[in-house]
Structure formats: structure tokens, C-alpha cells
Amino acid sequence: MFSAFIKNPQNCRYQGQDGDEEIILLLRAHPITNLSWIILAVLVFLLPILAPKAAAFYRLDFPFVPANFSLVLLIINYLLVLVMVFEGFLGWYFNVNILTNKKIVDIDFNSILSKNIDLALLRDVQECNSHLNGILGMIFNFGDVYVQTAASNETIDFKKVPHPDLSSDIVMDAALKVRNI
Amino acid sequence: MQVTSTQTIFDSALVTDFLRVTIFIIMFFYSIFALLIVRQVMIMSETLITHVSALVRGAAIIHAGFAIGLTIFIMGTL
Description:
By secondary structure, chain A is of the alpha+beta class. Chain A has helices at residues 35-57, 67-94, 135-140, 164-178, and strands at 5-7, 12-14, 23-27, 96-100, 103-108, 116-121, 125-131, 142-149, 155-162.
């Protein structure tokens, strides 16, 4: 269930899913996109170990910090790591793009206080574009998929998903199937 | 024998009081943030229902309890 590209996922539903609606494809951002917060979390985790060594190396004098303050600062540091990891995981795991046999659903939680859900009917899908950008995108084969619908001017976008070309093909195939083409 | 004592900024009561209040404020907001995360996770797991949702919800509640417990611990320590 921690995959970023899941065909016909089991034990998975979204809010508002109809009884006769089946999820064809569930997409998340490629796991490698988590690297930025993972590196940051590792650096913050190692900060209490590395900072005194770096200070000793550069012959800097650290003021003597009382034991209770240093313990509290250490706790705050590791709380920061904990919240970075937890929020990073939540952001990755719950920001999903879902293709069902009826709809395309784009669920975005951009911040702790925002929830954005874009829905489009498959029969309204006009065209589908995929873009593969950047070095990491080229190496790990992830990119963006843009789905243009007739119902609105807005496009539904799947950001940094794995196999963008295959994903857009699956979306287009599902749209054609709905229209019996 | 000559005894020398080194003065640090932590010897000043003003500095330690300032740090104490700053840490209390940080921990207070962290506890609020942890409770917000619980609400966020509830909304997230209602939106996307998987078998991991319950696990994540449990982790968020434990985290909030941990944050509040630590705030109380730190208030006792400092």
C-alpha cells in the first residue's frame, strides 16, 4: 500500500466513491520526491552530534549550557525531526490521484489547513498530456500528467507521478472505454 | 593555588528566564500543532480510506499525547 503506482488497488476507497465505482489506478508522487525532507530530517537528526564536533574542529568555544537546558533543546530537536518525518509522510501518502471507471479524482493537501479535491467525469476528458522533466525525473521515470476536460477550463494535474506516459495512456483508455470508442 | 571561574551567558538569570519562556512558548505551540495534525489526519483518513489510515490516526494521537506530555515534562524540568 506504500507504492506510488497501484493498478486496481484493494482495500482502498475515497470519500464519495459510488457503490458501483471501481478504482482503476491510484497514483502518488514518486517516492524519490521525498528525498528533500528525508535529507533535511537526517541533517537535523545529526545536528546535536555534528555541531559540537564541528565546533571543536574549527576551535570555536561553545558556551557551557546547563544540563537541563541541553536536554530540553535535544528533545525539541528530535521533536522537530519527528514532525518533519510525520508531516512528510502524510503529505506524500494522502496526496493522491485516483482514476476510477467513472471519474478522475485529484486529492491535494497542500498544507495542514487545506484540502483540495478536483473531480472530473471520465466522459468529459478531452486530452491527456504527460511531461517528464529534470534529471531525477529522467533517471527515475516520473513526471506530470495533465488531463484536459471539456467541463471546465481547469486541467487536472497529477504531479511527479511514476510512469507519466503509461498513466496518461491508462487515463485516455479509460475515457475512451466510457465513451464506447 | 589560583582558582579561576569562567562566566557564561547562562549565569545570567535574565538569559535563563528568557530561554525558559521561549521554550515554553515553543512547546505550547508544538502541542497545538500536534492537535492540529490529529485533526488533519482525521480529515485525510476520511478522504482516502485504506488499511493504513487507522495506523496513521493512531500515530497522530500518540504523537499529540507525547507532545503534551513532553510540554508538561519540560515545564517541570526547567
